[in-house]
Each structure stands twice: as C-alpha cells, then as structure tokens.
Amino acid sequence: MTMKIQLASLLILFGFSLQAQDSDMPNDFLSKGFHKDRRGQLRAGLPPNSVAVFFANPVRNRANDVDYVYHQDPDFYYLTGYKEPDAVLFIFKDKQVAANGSSYNEILFVQPRNALREMWTGRRLGEKGTKDVLGFEQAFNNSEFKRYAVDFSKFDKVLFFDFKNDVRDNPRDSSDLYDLIEQFKVKVNYPEKKSVSLSVEPIKNNLDMKGLNDQMAKLRGIKTKDEIELIRNAVSISCLGQVEVMKAIKPGMSEREIQGIHEFVYKKYQAEDLGYPSIVGAGHNGCILHYIDNYKPSISSKELILMDLGAEFHGYTADITRTIPVNGKFSPEQKLIYELVLKAQEEAMKITKPGTPRSALTDTCRAVVNRGLLQLGIIKSGEKHLYFPHGVSHHIGLDVHDRGGPLLEENNTVTIEPGIYIPDNAACDKKWWGIAVRIEDDYLITKDGYEHLSKIAPRTVKEIEDMMKQPSVFDKFDLPDLKKVNEKSKSGN
Ligand code: GLY
Ligand code: MN
Ligand code: MN
Q1: Over the stretch 75-119, which tens digit does the pLDDT of each residue have?
Q2: What is the dihedral of CA 358, 364, 369, 374, to 10 degrees?
C-alpha cells in the first residue's frame, strides 16, 4: 500500500477518530509519575539559572516511501514517556512566568493530531493526550514553537546535546524536527558555522553541549524499582530464547533460523523489539564481534555457535550471550576454551559489588584469559589480549550500552562478558582455529554484591549439554521444501 490513495480515503475520514482502546495496550509501561519524577531529579541537579533542552529522535528513511521503525531517543523517552517524533522538551531550573501570568518549569511541544496521518501511521497523543496521558501541564502543538517567546540569553546555561546535523527536512511539514532545531538555533543564537573546536568548547557563553552527559548518566545509571522489573522481564525473555534454541538446534540449520527461534520467543512474550541487531555466528563467524549478517545457510556439527541477543521489553533491553556446540557436546578443545572464559567471568563476579570500577572487571578477566591461553600454548609469553580484544562490562537499560558511571553502584544493571576468539589461520595450532566463545550475563548490583539476572540461561558445560538433550517443540515444526512449493505454484496446481 502506498500513500497514493490518500485522497480517496479522505471521504471516509469525516467523523473518523482513532481512540486508544484500553484493552489494546499493556498496562505495565512506566507511569507518568515515573517520568515526572525523573524530570524532577534532573531539575534538582541542573546548575543555577539554567534550562535543559531535549529533542526527539528523527524519523529515518529506509528507502523510497518506507521509513525505519521509529525509536524514540532514550533520554527523551526517560523524561517524558513520549514515543512520537517531532517534539522538543524544556526543563527549567526555576519557575518561568507565561504571558498570561501562570508559572511553569517544564514545557513539551509535540506533533499535532491529524486524522489522515493517524489512519496511515497510527495514533498520536497530540496536545491534549500529552496532558492527559503523560501528565504535562504545559503541552503545545509543535507549530506553536516558533512563537514561543523565551529570552534564552537570560539563562546562565542552556544545556542540550549538540545536533547531529543529519536530520531531513520534510518540505510538507513546517514544524518537523528539522524546523524545530532551526527555530531553536535562532532562539539561542547558535552560530551557523561550526569549526572543529566548537564541538569541544562551549560555543557561546551560555550554550553548554556537554553538561547533560554527566547529568543523564547519573540519573539513568541508577535504575528505579519499576525499571528493574522491566529489565528483569527483558532478561528472562532473552534467557528463554537461549533455552529454546539449546533444545531445538541441529546441524544443518541456518544461522538465520536460529536467530528466528530466539526472536519468535521474544515476540511470544510481547517484547516489542530487539535491543540491538541479533548476533548469531557459527564457527569462524563468531570471531566477528558484532556479526549481524547471520547468513551461513548450514551450520556444521563440529562448530560452536555464538549467540548474542537481547529482547527489548517496554523500552528496556537485555544483553546475553551463550555459546554452544551445534551437535550438543563440546569437543575437548572447545571445552578448554569455554571453561577458561567461564573462569574469567566467575572471577570477575567475585569482585562485582558497589565501589568496584567496571574497568577492574575487564582487568580481572584479561588476567585469567592471558594466563590460561599461555598455559594452553595458544599465546607466547608477553603476548596479551590477542584473542580478547574488548572490555567486559557496560550498563544496560533503555540503551544496550546504557548511560551510567564508571564505578559500580547499587541498582546499576550491567553486563560481564569475557570472550576468546581464535580465527581460522591464527598463529597457533590449527586445532584451536574457529573457536569463538563469549559468555555474557546481566547483573543487578545490590547493596553488597549482585543479583545474577540471567542465571536461568544454562551457562556451565554440563548445564548446556544437559539442556541440549531436551526435546524441543520445534522438532515437529516441519515446513515444505520451497523449491517444490514454487514448482507447484508455477504449474498452477
Ligand atoms: N551485544 C553487544 C554487546 O555485547 O555489547
Ligand atoms: Mn554487552
Ligand atoms: Mn552482547
């Protein structure tokens, strides 16, 4: 379907109004109180006489008249709950006085209701919905932004994230994100010509494009109870995907098919999205750290398969990796490498508690892996990190690599993810070639340690091999041969 039959559709739109059906919507999203509280926390941390400004994410075009599925900017979502494009939020440190004498300390401009557009692309909250559903006292259509008269020169600081300058202008909409940014630039006297140094230095006395990074990291790094419950769902769903694949996998399946089983489980549990493109790499493909082609049509019985996937549930994502033998049993070499990675993770878990720098988790894993690879004769004395080129811990939340601080704190949610990747033709005995192992788990930092959120996904050699012996619902999922289907379709029978 294209937009070309819009005019014909107009006739049936008179009196047409899309209303949210309560029964359509899950009721366990974050509440308006959550977002309001977050805005309050941000305001409390803002410098005196300042305003923080946030823009919604742009719509991205995929090709022709098809856009990518829209995903809100996580900071914007965190502070508002608003999931639509073409919006801008202002959070003021102090009360502002409007022309009519009323006072306010936050204001949101949103895309307007539009019955025709809503018939094509879905419901919009509009000004009224933003007030009713999201609890904003001051919400306006984005077309009002041009007339919004605030003297930004009066603030000691105007904080915002610098524009990425890759936002398209929709010529049919004079209040889209492109225009909102252009109008904002005029209002704050943002210099038109940027030089390289401007991205490092504040470009005008009161424009600050760095300060929000720390402010948002402090806030978003510490998860609230409600956020932890959403992350717990995302993690459990992702673990169940790993479990189903462990039972279903067989030599000869494709990487894509394995990916499909994980993602089917996510959908079954109403996870709306993936936190990042799924990584499913058999054998040598597992050595490509962010391998997302998942193209190998037939995985071989002697290979390991590395599966790094995370469901996104109500905006929050898991990040879990399991590596398993395609035929259900680790070879002696695979087992040695696997258990070395596991040992590295277990050692890091021993120091996982508030106060530990995340970098210490990486150092601990590297020490274990370097020692182990030396003992196995895979590296020589003095060689380091040869087959382990990444750090092992990041925050998870609304982003898979979420905002948060460098030291672990209570109510952080983080990963620990050591790995060893030995590509074909590596400078070691070829019995090790094509062995790639990553083990990645998700943890909630508690008062004096951690809760292992992803522990239901089998992790030790024995747990994995035992799980892989279990029958699978997919054993009976037998689809017809595509070539035969095509022949039948061509023959007209
Ligand atoms: N899945 C990306 C990462 O593990 O950081
Ligand atoms: Mn990760
Ligand atoms: Mn990962």
Answers
A1: 999 999 999 999 999 999 999 998 888 899 999 999 999 999 999
A2: 140
CB atoms within 5 A of ion ligand 2 belong to 319, 415, 417
**Ordered structural domains, the chain, with CATH:** 27-194+202-217 (3.40.350.10), 222-467 (3.90.230.10)
Atom 2 of ligand 1 has which residue's CA nearest to it?
319
CA 31/CA 54 separation, integer angstroms = 20
Indicate which residue's Cα is closest to atom 5 of ligand 1: 401
Structure tokens at 299: 């995985």
pLDDT in tens, 198-228: 455 555 689 999 999 999 999 999 999 999 9
Q: Are 340 and 420 in contact (CB under 8 A)?
A: yes
DSSP letters for 396-447: -SSSSSB---SB--TT-EEEE--EEEE-TT-SS-GGGTTEEEE-BEEEEE-S
d(CA 492, CA 478): 24
What residues are paired with 309 via a beta bridge? 320
Ligand 2 centroid vs 309 CA: distance in angstroms? 9
pLDDT of residue 100: 84
| Average pLDDT rounded to a whole number, residues 462-478 | 97
CA of 330 to the centre of ligand 1 (A): 24
Q: Among positive and negative, which fits the CA dihedral 71, 73, 79, 84? A: negative
Of ligand 1's listed atoms, the one at least distance from the Cα of 440 is: 4
In tens, the pLDDT along 391-422 reads: 999 999 999 999 999 999 999 999 999 999 99
The string of DSSP letters for 259-283 reads HHHHHHHHHHTT--EESS--EEEEG
Three-state DSSP state, 6: helix
Residue identified by tokens 């673990």 is 239
> Phi and psi of 324, rounded to 5°?
-135, 155
User: What span, in angstroms and rounded, lies between the C-alpha atoms of 409 and 446?
Assistant: 8
For 167, list phi and psi in degrees, rounded to 5: -100, 125
How many residues in total does the chain contain? 493
Tokens of 119: 């018939």
Judge if the beta carbon of residue 442 lies within 6 A of ligand 1.
no
Q: For the whole model, what pTM was predicted? A: 0.93
Ligand 1 neighbourhood includes 84 CB (under 6 angstroms) = no
Position in ligand 1 atom list of the atom nearest CA 401: 5
* Pocket residue to mutate for ligand 1, from 238, 362, 417, most atoms within 8 A of Cβ: 417
Task: Please choose, from the candidates 143, 124, 137, 123, the residue with its C-alpha nearest in 3D space to the C-alpha of residue 90.
Answer: 137
Q: Which residue has the tokens 């050699």?
A: 461
